[in-house]
Each structure stands twice: as structure tokens, then as C-alpha cells.
Design a protein that fits this description.
Elements: H1 3-16, H2 29-42, E1 45-46, E2 51-52, E3 56-61, H3 63-70, H4 73-91, E4 100-105, E5 114-119, H5 123-126, H6 146-155, E6 166-172, E7 179-180, E8 185-189, E9 196-197, E10 208-213, E11 216-221, E12 228-230, E13 233-235, E14 239-241, E15 245-249, E16 252-258
Parallel strand pairs: 3-4, 8-9
Antiparallel strand pairs: 1-2, 3-5, 6-7, 6-16, 8-10, 10-11, 11-14, 12-13, 12-15, 15-16
Helix pairs in contact: 1-4, 2-4
Amino acid sequence: MGVFSKLENAMQGAVEGPFNRLFRTRLEPVELSNKLIRVMESHLQIGHDKKLAPNLYHVYLNKNDYVRFNAYAQSLQQQLAQVLIDVARDRGYTLTSRPVIRFIEAEGIVTGQARIECETVDPRLAQANPAAAPIDGVDETVSMSPQQAAALAQKNGAMAAPMPPAWLTLYRPVKGNPVPFPGPVLHIGRHLTNDVVVNDKKVSRQHAVIRYENGQFIIYDLHSTNGIGVNGVMTHNPVPLKNNDLVTVGSHEFIFQRR
């Protein structure tokens, strides 16, 4: 079982149990953790030898969801922060402090939905309370301001040219329509929260991601059971993708294309 599955099960047991009577909307704690992970991965600052993850998350909620979540906000925020820490550890991301999640009531948000914005800020500004501290084993960097983080990214060549258009098209077992990249990260898996949903028992719920890093697209296996394939070669290791490469996930094959 991959780390995401373990985390998901842990969230269901540790969070949904105590709050079972509380969460009656479509927005569940596990769904919110999925959204936070996706936002974190979409806003990584990629350096030469580090992937710096945001440490402050603003979660904008409908009034109904805000009232329900806010009743147990501290416990839930701690659980969600721990999910981000565990994912960062497993995937080699750097956090400058324990992630802080803030719930904010906002107009224009549909019940069951959430809008999440994130930042990489000075740890002293991110902490929700003075007792919070950097996490041992996660932070390998000194405290830094947004300006310092941007300078580090620029120094390491992360401020590259804008991402070119790219898309993934199902080739087998049937031909499908192109799925354009929504941003620098495209998620592939069986769970409905993925950008490319593959309804195949051989595919893990969170199976793989393709990221645009330093001018190239790289596919990463997310500790899936069966791995990923590129041009017929199966692996669990990251693989840079070229235009018209054939990507295999379970019994499905996709053509990767970029301009």
C-alpha cells in the first residue's frame, strides 16, 4: 500500500470517525486533504536539488462548510497539516515549517467545494500559534522570506520559460480526446479527483503525476502497485517524457504530446 493510501485510511479513521456526525456535506476531510496535496504539488518551487513546498494554506469555504469545519478546526487543521508533512517526506519535498491551514468563510463558494490559495512565507509569519515550531526531519533549509525563497529558486534555475502547451490522449483500449495539462502538474489515477481518471483495477487511486520541471516534463510513479510504462518499458522511477512518447498506466496507453 502506498503512502497516499495509508494517509487516506488514516484520515478516514482518525478524522472522519470523531467528526462523523459533523460532516454531512459533500466536502469530506479526505477530499479536503486531496485538494491540499494537489495545491501543494502545483506550487512547488523547483530548484537544482530541492523542491520547496508552500507552508501556508488559505482554505476558502461556503458558510455551511465553514461553520461545520470550524467547530473542530484545530484538530482538523492538525490532521491536514500532518498529511502534507507525510507526503512531503515521502516525495522529497522541503518544508520550511509545519504547514498552517486556515479556514476562511467566503461568498461565491458552493457548499461541498473549496478554493485553496497557498504561499511560502517566513515560518514566523506562517505559524498559527507561538507554540508551533519547524518540523524535525522535514526542514533542511533555514528560515526564509518569500523574497529569499524566490532568490533561491532563481539561483537554482527554477525561473524557467513559461510551460509550453501539453496534453495526454488515450490511445488504447479505445481512442479518447486530448486532456490538456491544467498547470505544471497533471495527476493520473483511479480516484475521481485526478485530472486523468483511469477506471482500471490495475491502476492505483493516486497512480502517477507528470510535472513540468526545468524545461521538461517528467512522469513520477506515486508508489503504485504496477508502476508506469514509457514506450513499453515498465518502471517505478521518474522518466523524462519526449513528444509522442507512449505512457502505460495499468491496461491503458496514452500518447504524450507537447509543443
